[in-house]
Amino acid sequence: MPAPVQAPAATASAAPQAGNGLPKVRSFSLPVDDLARVAESSGLQWVNSDAAKIAAAQAAMAAEPKPVHVPRERPPVVELDEGPLVLVETRRDLRDMQLPFER
Description:
- The chain is mostly helical and 103 residues long.
- The protein has a domain at 31-60.
- 32% of the residues lie in helices and 0% in strands.
- The protein is elongated, with a radius of gyration of 39 Å.
- It starts with 8 loop residues before the first helix and ends in a 40-residue tail after the last helix.
């Protein structure tokens, strides 16, 4: 009779970690030198943005004043007529009506 197979210990320890929330996000650095070599081997030239200019543009955007929030104007409340209902005839039988040009 074969022996029962036990679950690996890694799955038992992974279950409590799943309930802790989202995983930590690590920083990522782009391997620019490797990408430049790949581009050059393909006959292309790698062009990268200037980090100082990007930082200056981001600082200028952060220094701009925030726009003033202007709330929208609400329309006036419609007052309902509480009087008696009025019957309005919307369809008339015109077979028996005499028109002015028939006289």
